[in-house]
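=== Structure Prediction Worksheet ===
Name of assembly: unnamed complex
Input type: mixed (protein and possibly other molecules)
Chain count: two
Listed entries:
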Amino acid sequence: MATELKAPPAPSPPDAATGEGVLVENVSRTYSQRGGPGVQALCEVSVRAHGGELLAVVGPSGCGKSTLLELICGLQRPDGGSIVCPPAVLMPQHDLLLPWLSAVDNAALALRIARLPREQARRRAAALFEELGLDGFQDARPAELSGGMRQRVAFLRTLLSGKPVLCLDEPFGALDAITRGEMQAWLSQALAREPRTVVLVTHDVEEAILLADRVAILSARPGRVLEQLEVSAPRPRARTDGAVIALRERALGVLKLGAPPLGGGA
Amino acid sequence: MSTAARTTLSRADGATATLRPGDGALRRAIRAGLPPLLLVAALLGLWEIYVDAGSDSSFVLPAPHSIAAAMWDNAGLLAANLRPTAEEVGLGILLALLIGFALAVVIHLSPLLRRAVYPLAVGSQAVPIAVIAPLLVFWWGFGMAPKLVVIVVICFFPVLVTTVDGLAAVDPDQLKLLRTLDASRWQAFRFAELPAALPAALSGARIALAVGVIGAYIAESQTATSGVHAGLGHEINADLTALQTPRAYAAAVVLFGFAIACFHALGLAERRLAPWSARPRGDAG
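=== Predicted Assembly ===
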């Protein structure tokens, strides 16, 4: 089933994109350390996202969130457990746009890697710029773009890989609060137009609840799933919605309980 | 918004605005050229005073005015000798750039070859040219080839080191990203590492140029040349032997100017070939 979705590098039509979800079961991952016991990053983590859903993974820094994304993307192998998921693409924390390419060429990178001729790749990427409200920025170099714009271009590059699963690693972590809010709204709209299965890693509980269909809360290292919340509130959601506030407080409570006691050892 | 503002500004005082570009360029040229010119003038003045005080023989240190006179009198000879030297340096730097870059790529892509090649490259810099010069002449005769070899041996090294560092400086996350976009090793190299290494290689070439001109002198001194105009290095040695010290100094001044011109030419090339590295990085804030 996964191979069906692998073939076209094009942005898949919505029905195909919602076809398959991500299933992570009892996954553990330990990094070996020279001359000492390994560092366990993840411990028997089970999370899932149905096709077309957005799963947010929240937790304190160092809880193995990025490791989880790399496992889903196939950049690492788990030591135990299983991961069932169609091809996934990573959007790392930093935009990592190539400074010598224009915005549209950066967005079209996956198409060029799939050996599409340059002009054709450009046209496809430019069409997505128009569709997602970035028209006019196609020819700008990354250095000329604001942080928020750079993240949008990085997201287009991720979308244009044509893979059904997107793994977003703290995509808005480096942005200021106002830009962050704008980006969250923009991401919701973009995903409404171009549905994909998304695994979003963030340390911001509120961001998780505003954007996600389900939220997995991880403990400090080694990361374990403390709780999974379903967010069924209708969209668009605002941070002042009663349901959002209630879920946020609940999630923060879980995180607090899961935190190591003060003064406790490592 | 900013373009609109600019248009209204130029409309407000159109007459002066049309004069401005040339004016600004001239002023910028003066502002850039003035400090080094003033420094050179001051040093020349001190030099002239020192020589006129009569402490040294003019065979050892000629006065600036006699060097200037030697330049004027021997302009044709100096120009004729600049030509082969300029060709050696130009071709030599180009070859050094290509060879240094190619070696850097090989070293970057293969840990095995890195271990094998890098120490040899470092060691090559310690070998005095005089040791291999007779061999070079034996192999390639009195033409340009042995001189090019000497310049390349001296100049490939800075290119190699800066390029290896440039290739290694690519963010590992960048390579991870490319892997999840299904890029092959070759594509990761072509899309991310190769362009990233280009400005590094060109900075290496600028360092190489500084040693390349002296490399040409060494090459001309160490390998004999047939022909009348054998290059500025050769000319300098001949003049020093014949106690034509002002002319030797005049030839050195030509080398001096040539090196500066080449340095700026490479800087221009870098701005053309890698405009993104010259531009200050935009800030998110």
